[in-house]
Design brief:
elongated; 123 residues
Length: 123
């Protein structure tokens, strides 16, 4: 279980990050609404999508999973701050699903980073 849990968490976070890309890269109305509301449409939406793709890939590679977790923490931390300051918890009557997903992804990424801390070369 000690070796399976980090792998399961890495896969889960990667899936969450990668599955949202279709909304960002296809300019889904909800994604456009969110990034317009925070003043980052379209470049912020596309840059965030590219960064999430990179984080998702890095999470799936054992040697770079800690880098992916750190990147995910930064991205999702920004998303959480946008929810708390500009967007609100509920967006377009989603009952807070996007916010809950962001918080869960943040927590899972932090757990991954903690579990992979021995892989970080500068600590």
């Amino acid at each position: 279980m000690k070796k399976k849990l980090p792998l399961l968490l890495r896969i889960l976070v990667a899936i969450i990050l990668i599955q949202t890309l279709r909304f960002k890269f296809t300019a889904h109305p909800d994604s456009v609404y969110i990034f317009t509301k925070v003043g980052l449409e379209p470049y912020g939406r596309i840059a965030t999508g590219i960064t999430e793709l990179i984080a998702g890939i890095l999470l799936l590679i054992p040697k770079t999973s800690w880098i992916g977790a750190m990147l995910a923490l930064g991205i999702i931390g920004g998303a959480i701050m946008m929810h708390l300051t500009k967007l609100g918890i509920e967006i377009n009557n989603d009952s807070g699903v996007l916010f809950i997903t962001a918080v869960s992804t943040f927590v899972f990424s932090a757990i991954i980073l903690w579990m992979e801390r021995k892989e970080i070369k500068f600590f």
